Amino acid sequence: MTRLAAGLLGAALLAVPVGAVAPPTQFEVEESLTCQCGCGLTVHACNHLQCGSGDPIKKEIAERIARGEDKATILAAFRDRYGEKILSSPTFQGFNWVAWITPFAAVLAGGVGISLVIRRWTRTPPAPPPAAPSPADDERRRRLARELAALDREA
Amino acid sequence: MPEIGRLATCLALLFAVYAIGASIGGGLRRRTELVRSGEHAAYVVFGFVLVAAAILVRALLQHDFSLEYVAAYSSSTLPTHYAFAALWGGQKGSLLFWALLLSGFSAIVHLQNRQKNRDLMPWVTATLMTIAAFFLCLCVFVTDPFERMPVPATEGRDLNPLLQNYWMMIHPPSLYLGYVSASVPFAFAIAALVAGRLGDQWIRTTRRWALFSWAFLSLGNLLGARWAYEVLGWGGYWAWDPVENAAFMPWLVSTAYLHSVMIQEKKDMLRVWNMVLVLLTFSLTVFGTFLTRSGVISSVHSFTQSGLGPFFIAFLLLVLTVGGALLVYRLPALRTQATVESFLSRESAFLFNNLVLVGIAFATFWGTVFPVLSEWVRGVKITVGPPFFNRVNAPLGIALLFLAGVGPIIAWRRASPKNLRRAFVAPVTTGLVAAVVLRVAGVPLGYAHATFALACFVLATVVQEFWRGMRARQAMLGEGPARALGRLVGKNRRRYGGYIVHVGIVAIFVGIAASSAFRVEATQALRPGESMDVGKFTLRYDRIATEEDAHLSRVRALVSVSTNGTPLGTLGPEKRFYKKPQQPTTEVAIRPTLSEDLYLVLGSYDPPSGVATIQAYVNPLVAWLWIGGLLMGIGTLITMWPSPLERRAPAYALGGIEAAAE
């Protein structure tokens, strides 16, 4: 069940039809990789002048796409060479699932929690009417009336 | 002179410590003169920090390279306005700037509350001065902005070229204003918890401060986006960099607070939740500062490694521990009898709005810290970049946009079928029609399509509210349309100002969706006279122009723009090569219109062949981000503007001396 839910979530997040065979675009592969020059941007976004990292990676991506490699193969090649840090988002594997699932699980848990609280509230009989005003409240009320009257006179 | 600056910082710290002691002592023993003495000390703190900051600015403007900070962040050729901005351009100066803003805000708070909130003020003073003392401690003991060089430098290393941009003058101060002013609601929340004054007195007192903080966080984030758009030259405006996230998270939580506080004011509910949100907002500002200064997460914004991280973590833990403990201690007194009566009510809509806002903040936090967690658990470095944040936050953003339409028009307590019909038929119809029209027009189904349709739905709710309010005034008071509209807004500033803010948010959503989903780009190496096409534009590269002065040299590509043979002018994207430090930067050229920006970057230039690589982007509707920001600013101003009734409110309504005496 958990695997099924995880699979569905993964599919939704990927937003790519399962079994799609269309060749990857240069853009989508570049967006899936982080430039290693330290700019913190994706390979596609890095525009450092003659970037020693981004430019060769872009060239290699173009060559691999021209050779007919699919996105997973290209990303795996870069991952093998640079390590997982070159991927611009966590993979859908192992511990990295925690990255993807936790935000949705937290919001879902919050939603369920709020719904349960509202449900309990709506089933609770309304609170009893407030107790009779205390003498201090009477004094405040009289002062409020005096000040409002004074305000009205000012106006 | 710098020695006087250092002395002023030390004295400010001493007075801050005295203010803390005097306020706590006065508050515990109910000794008014001690409390007042603490407040006076807080004014003195501001005075000393102001003197210290003025001395540092003077040193920057006079190029006193005997100071390590001046030598590190300015040079003799740095233009004066950037030399001034260097005050917040580096680690040490920015900490002093933070202390300056905080002590300034403290002084304003004390002036505002000379006759009000007397039961809260000892604890407000103590909290604000504790924060000030923390920053002053850093300035005195850890990163002294007045540190002398062993041997005075003959020339400075200059301000980072990326910071030499006019946005540097306003973006960091805006964010700092937002960050630091979040201390005021936090201080009042702590004071309310300590004093046991748990009603909405502290909330009413800090409403404008919360709005002020939120407005400057909004402005700071948007100006940062604009700065990135103009300076970084990658065609976008938001990269989900950890430090961008650090500024975004408190904004989200602060937005949640501004909504949920309405429920407390209206129905005396959610007291605990509002306390949590205020504590969280402030904690996130400290966390953001920690991220920027600790070096724990790599970011283009980070200051150099400084070893400040442990201090900020310790301070964050102190804030969370004290705030959490007080909250738990007061939990029984914070609980109220009031409840939500139906799922179909404004209270419910606001609760779910809070859930989504805090959910986005959590998702952003999670993505920001996950690389550290992953390395800790697996020993493997990973990157959590824009694709993660876009995928996780996009569906939550859509839910938020939907709730922005529902919340303001659904009835309080319980929406009847009649109310639902009256409120929602027109907006829902508008949204559905928009969805169909957009689809027929060729907009593919997806997040952008959903955003546009929901934007129409939200706009329809706002228009409906204005229209009905105006018509009611016309019918009841016989006013003309313009007068009725003006009076409607003037007499309900908070409500209608809020609607204008929502319109601004809608504009920003539309700008983000369109520019993310429908951006067109092309990159091409061109010889002089050659052309390329991008979207509907034809770009002809004419020639390279070069300029040089003492500070930098420029290489500008002159590109003629036309569409369908009609000339539209010339754009000049350029590369700048700064001489100190020797670093190239990108200056993009933008042709902005309401429908799209043509955005050109000079990628590279080969002088022997004259070949220039031009990167061209067509970013649809991106102007609506900035227009949305402007609308948010206008709406916030309307909301904050005091009404005549408020100005004449009885003193005890604001927790004045008489109320305290009772």
Kindly list the characteristics that best describe this protein.
heterodimer; A: 155 residues; mainly alpha; 59% helix; B: 662 residues; alpha+beta; 64% helix; 12% strand; globular; disordered C terminus
Share of residues in helices of chain B: 55-70%
The main sheet of chain B comes to: 6 strands, antiparallel
In terms of per-residue confidence, which ranges of chain B show pLDDT below 50 for 5 or more consecutive residues?
A: 650-662
Shape of chain A: elongated
- Strand tally of chain B is 10
Radius of gyration of chain B: 27 Å
Distance separating the two termini of chain A: 70 Å
Number of strands of chain A: 0
Write a concise synopsis of the structure shown.
The complex is a heterodimer of chains A (155) and B (662). With 155 residues, chain A is an all-alpha fold.
Please specify the SSE layout and strand pairing:
The complex is a heterodimer of chains A (155) and B (662).
Chain A lengths: L1 H13 L11 H6 L22 H13 L4 H12 L13 H28 L11 H20 L1
Chain B lengths: L1 H28 L2 H30 L6 H6 L6 H6 L5 H22 L8 H22 L24 H15 L1 H13 L5 H31 L10 H26 L3 H24 L14 H26 L11 H33 L7 H21 L10 H24 L6 H31 L3 H11 L1 H25 L2 E7 L4 E4 L2 E12 L3 E12 L2 E6 L2 E6 L2 E6 L1 E4 L3 E11 L4 E10 L2 H18 L3 H4 L9 H5 L1
Antiparallel strand pairs in B: 1-10, 2-3, 3-4, 4-5, 4-6, 6-7, 8-9, 9-10
Description:
- The complex is a heterodimer of chains A (155) and B (662).
- Among the domains of chain A are: 66 residues, no CATH class; 29 residues.
- Chain A has six helices and no strands.
- Chain A is an all-alpha fold.
- About 8% of the residues of chain A have low confidence.
- Among the domains of chain B are: 159 residues, no CATH class; 101 residues.
- Helix content of chain B is 64%, strand content 12%.
- Chain B is built from 21 helices and ten strands.
- In chain B, the strands form two sheets. In chain B, strands 2, 3, 4, 5, 6 and 7 form a six-stranded antiparallel β-sheet that branches. Chain B has a four-stranded antiparallel β-sheet with strand order 1-10-9-8, with helices on one face.
- In chain B, β4 and β5 form a beta hairpin.
- In chain B, α16 packs antiparallel against α18 and α18 packs antiparallel against α19.
- Chain B is globular, with a radius of gyration of 27 Å.
- The two termini of chain B are 51 Å apart.
- Chains A and B meet through α5 and α6 of A and α13, α14 and β9 of B.
